[in-house]
Amino acid sequence: MTHEHIHQAALPTAALMFDGQVYVLDWPRSGDLSRTSHSAPALPTMDYATHLVNIVKFHCSPLFHLFDDTVFMEALHAHYESKQKPEALVQQLWFIHFMLILAFGKALTSKPGKGNQPPGAGFFIHAMQLLPNITILWSEPVQATEILCCIALYLHCIEHRGSAHNYVSQSIPQQPTSLTFNINKIQIGQAVRLAMTHGLHTDLSSHQVEFPLISRCRKLWWTILVLDRQMTYLSGLPQSVRDEDVTAPLPDFEGDIFRTSAFAMRTKLSHFIATIDRSE
User: Fold this and answer.
1) What is the mean pLDDT of residues 187-203?
2) Domain Xylanolytic transcriptional activator regulatory, which positions (predicted)?
3) What is the pLDDT of residue 72?
């Protein structure tokens, strides 16, 4: 509309950038760390990695829960001090999670280049190469759901909204293939179902769960719901989770009134979006 008003002519088709066309995300066949190490991006020093993590916390934490600070930073120090057990599933998932957080950190601190890949793409693609199938993710629901949220939010931010809402590739193509046309999918809807299957949408305080995990699950659940509702709305699709099915209380960030209020406002906005979507 702005172009037509100024130039009195329609915007040329060649100038239109539809969903998934702003940036290109391609990678070769999936595999474990040993099979993809040749294409792995160089890890930053621990100090710079900590800086990038803090950048992500500063920009994203008031609105989204992408990782548990205490658990994540303990694993980060253990990784750089070579105290982790690489064969352990929790450590493998943490490394994937770490790659995604670094991708966010690079995206938030770098200017877009002249190429067709977004900042942080190297870390993101490496994380996707290492991502296991959903049956493995199912065994670590909290960490796996945090990973799925990171994937969906990163894709959403780089104008791959359809991919963010509908799927993230896990296929093993014979040739490098576009993210948008891979067959096997991990949906943000799967993140919702993964969380609901393990009861994150309920009041876990009555289930004899330790408080730190309860707090983490509440922050994660409301982040999932906010992302799902926003992406569903932008895709023009009906909402899938009803308010009456959710009994999990809003999270309380102890000692941080600003973050508690910001998170509450964000969830209320998602509620209004869902209400408008359901109204005729």
Assistant:
1) 83
2) 184-257
3) 96
Q: Does residue 112 have a pLDDT over 80?
A: no
| Structure token pair of residue 87 | 């064969």
Average pLDDT over residues 196-201: 90
Structure tokens at 229: 């509702």
Confidence of residue 171 (pLDDT cuts 50, 70, 90): very low
* Dist. CA 257–CA 251, nearest whole Å: 12
Which value, to the nearest 10 degrees, does the dihedral of the CA atoms of residues 253, 51, 71, 226 take? 50
- How much is the pLDDT for 168? 31
CA distance 181 to 214: 38
H helix intervals, 61-160: 69-80, 89-109, 121-130, 134-137, 141-157
pLDDT at 235: 74
* Both tokens assigned to 77: 């120090």
- Amino acid identity of 196? M
d(C-alpha 228, C-alpha 230), whole Å: 6
**pLDDT for residue 170:** 29
Radius of gyration for the alpha carbons in the chain, expressed in angstroms and rounded: 19
User: Could you tell me which residues come within 8 angstroms of residue 132 by beta carbon, excluding any fewer than 6 positions away?
Assistant: 92, 93
Continuous segment of H or E residues that includes residue 26: strand 26-27
The contacts of residue 240 (CB under 8 Å, 6+ apart) are: 189, 192, 228, 232
